[in-house]
Amino acid sequence: MLFTPPPSPQATFRQPAKLTEVPPNRRKYAISVASSVYHYRFENGRRYHARCENEYPFPNDEKEQDRLDLIHHLHCLILDGKLFVSPIGNSSKRVLDIGTGIWAIDFADEFPSAEVVGTDLSPIQPEWVPPNLTFIIDDCEADWTFPHKFDFIHARTLGGSITNLPRLLRQAYDNLEPGGWLEMQEYETTSKSDDNSFPPDSALLRWINNLNRAAEKLGRPLNIAAELRGQLVVAGFANVEDHVYKVLFPHCSSLLPYLFVRPTNPSSFPALSQVPMTPWAKNKKLKDQGRFNQIAMLDSLQSYTLHLFTRVLDYSASEAEVYLVDVRKELMDPRIHMYST
């Protein structure tokens, strides 16, 4: 999703080149990297940020990083190898990436003249990064204290992580240069079927409902994609526009909106682009997207479920794992034709 603050700010895989190790004196942190930053929580066989008990509910271990790398590759496949859809050209001098990591590395590599900053809650970034990239350990919901504004701000899949979305968007607005762009990418946490092919008492639909209920109870709603457009307008952005991609299983899909601002046709919506979530399509490109979508969705089940179910909904870890057995079966069932809107 992209947006622009007045007077004229706007919002909408390649292999890395030779990377350079970041010298110690270039490792800037928004907070001091005290030992507490490395005090991870371990529960249910997964590693979490130290503040996960009441705050960030998703793992930060290597398994989760691998899953997020796969999600990044999937986004690039959907966008035909592009890292963004905002019309920024090659002009961005200062770029901020909120919590993605690998996107910042690829962007800094592709645009070596840009100064790129990436933020994250945990110090899990690689040792070798492009020399024009700096990672900062910071909470994007805290006060932004950057010494300069940005031409381009990028954020992805913040659903489930944010308690105060309006404040986050307002801080992004205030930290964009006039003419700058903000791009946000979110999945909808919903699922539907046009042909009523869900089984009675569908495990998948119950899982989605429980995830949304737990996230709301935690104060970090998952399903924020549909409200982003309105929230961006309230935050002051103009010419907000959605790019929506319908991401399918052979039987399933979700909507991936990219919200952004263009200087013309601010109220128009592009047609949906269909992306399979399993390799059912005959078209080779769609088949490849389907393979990655299927793996990404199945890998996401445990990451999204364990903390929310055990700490918020009072499931035991074993009960949560048993619950997911039937969810996986439905995700793999070609007789169910599901999608999100």
**Average pLDDT metric:** 75
Q: Could you say which structural class the secondary elements and strand pairing correspond to?
A: alpha/beta
Q: How much strand?
A: 15-25%
| Poorly predicted segments | 1-34, 249-255, 261-282
Q: What is the rounded distance between the termini? A: 16 Å
Compute the CA-based radius of gyration: 20 Å
The tally of helices reads 7
Number of strands: 15
Morphology: globular
In helices, the fraction of residues equals 25-40%
Question: What would you note in describing this structure?
Answer:
- The structure is a single chain.
- The chain is an alpha/beta fold and 341 residues long.
- The chain is 31% helix and 21% strand.
- It has seven helices and 15 strands.
- The protein has helices spanning 62-78, 102-110, 165-174, 203-218, 225-235, 284-312, 317-331, and strands at residues 2-4, 20-21, 41-43, 46-48, 94-98, 115-120, 128-129, 133-137, 150-156, 176-185, 192-193, 238-248, 253-261, 273-275, 338-339.
- The strands form four sheets. Strands 1, 5, 6, 8, 9, 10, 12, 13 and 14 form a nine-stranded mixed β-sheet that branches. Strands 2-7 form a two-stranded antiparallel ribbon. The protein has a two-stranded antiparallel ribbon with strand order 3-4.
- Helix 3 (165-174) packs across helix 5 (225-235), helix 4 crosses helix 6 (284-312) and helix 6 runs antiparallel to helix 7 (317-331).
- The longest helix is centred in the C-terminal third of the chain and has 29 residues, at 284-312.
- The chain is globular, with a radius of gyration of 20 Å.
- The two termini are 16 Å apart.
- Mean pLDDT is 75; it is low at 1-34, 249-255 and 261-282.
